[in-house]
Give the backbone structure.
Amino acid sequence: MRILIVEDESSIANFIRDGMEEEGFAVDVASNGKDGYSLAIDNIEEYDVILLDWMLPGMSGIEIIRNLRIVNNEIPIILLTAKDSVDDVVFGLESGANDYIRKPFSFEELLARVRVLMRKNETGPVIFTAKDIEMDIEKHTVTHNENHIDLTQKEFALLEYLLRNKGKVCRRTRIIAKVWNIHFDYDNSVIDVYINALRKKLDDHGSPSIITTVRGIGYKIEDEE
Ligand code: CA
C-alpha cells in the first residue's frame, strides 16, 4: 500500500511518515504544492491514498485536488487543515476531498480514517485465498490450514500485492515500486530474498510453491479457480 503526504511542515510530515511506515505503507513525501502535484499526477495509479495539507507554498491543497480530480475521481484524498469553520470544511469537501482532519490530530485517528477510505475504495474481497493459505486484510492475519503464520510487515505487503493480482504476472519493477516504494533503476534482488522467506513460511514441504517464478519477469500466484 502506497501513500503520498504533501505537507510543508516537516515535523508533521515526518510524524505521519514514520507512523505510516511502521504500519507497512510505502510513503512518499512532498514539502510544497508543486512537487506534491507532480508526484501525484505522475504516479496516480500507484497511490492508495493522498494526505494533503491545505495551506502549501507553490500550490494550495485545494488547487491540487481540483486538478487531480480532472483526471482521477477514485483516489482517496484526505485534507489536513488548521481551518475549521464549517464553510471551509464544506468548501474542501466540495472541491473533491473525501475527508478532512483538523490539526492537531492523533496518528491513530488519521490511520483509522485512512483505513476507512481505503476499504471503501477497494474493489474485491478483504479475504484472499490461495490453496491452503488465507489472508485476512482487516484482521491483518495469514493462516495455513487455519494455523497462524507470522509475517513481517514487508512480507505481508508483498504477499498481499501478489494475492490482489492473483492469476497475473507481477513484474519485479512494479513489485519494487508498490511494496518498497523504489522508482529508480535499483538492484531488485531484495525481492528474491523476501519471496524465499515467504515460500519457507507458506509452502508445504515437498510440494510446489504457491508463488511461481516467471523467469526474467517476476512472480505470480496461480488462480486455481
Ligand atoms: Ca501548511
